[in-house]
Amino acid sequence: MKRFLELSEELLQKCVKCGLCKSVCPTYPYIEEESGFARGRLALAQMVGQGELPLTAEVAREWDQCAMCRRCEWICPNGVEYKEIIAHTRDLQRRELGQGMVKGMGLVALGFLQSSPGRKVVKLAGKLMERLPVKEIKTPFPTGAVKFMPKPTAEAFGLRGKVFKAEQEKGRLLFFTGCMIDAFYGKTGESVIKLMNRAGYTVVVPEDIKCCGAPHYYSGNMPAFERLKEHNLKEMEKHQFDAVVVACPTCGGALQEDYKLDKPVYDFAQIVFESSLQFKGSGKRLTFHVPCHSYGAMKVSDKVFYQLMERVEGDQVKKAQKDKSCCGFAGLFSITNPKVSDQIQKEKIEDLKKTEAQVVLTTCPGCVLNLRDGVKKHATGQEVMHLADYLADSLC
Ligand code: SF4
Ligand code: SF4
Question: Domain spanning 162-272: which CATH class is it, in words?
Answer without folding.
Answer: alpha beta
